[in-house]
């Protein structure tokens, strides 16, 4: 793509000076040259100047044997800006609690990526393709206590 016809402003916001297309995706290339799409930049959680990818935390939560499903969203926080909040569907007969979820994640990620709030739900909204619809998760009203 060379740009938008007659729209240099749209071209400059979409293409960088080297000709790379800004897709809004967060990606990385591994040692073997494979490209991996991690998440959408618009969906990143901004925690105290750090950027946290919800998909990374969701993948980690899905690896827990007592968690059937999970979605992570940004939750408003006066001090941090946003904090990672996990919505978790428990496996049948699971006894995991909020602290157990937070500790499980905290042991495996950098401190700024820790899940700070947990809410247990019966289901996570999904697209027809099976992707978590984070924008459709019912967000509880922010409170001053955590």
TrEMBL record:
Task: Recite the UniProt keywords alphabetically.
Answer: Ligase
UniProt GO MF annotations: ligase activity
Instruction: Using the record's annotation, list all stretches that form the AMP-binding enzyme C-terminal domain.
Output: 56-131
Question: Pfam families given for it?
Answer: AMP-binding_C (PF13193)
Query: Which family does the record claim for this protein?
Result: Belongs to the ATP-dependent AMP-binding enzyme family.
Name of the protein in its database record = AMP-binding enzyme C-terminal domain-containing protein
Species of origin: Populus trichocarpa
Q: What is the lineage of its organism?
A: Eukaryota, Viridiplantae, Streptophyta, Embryophyta, Tracheophyta
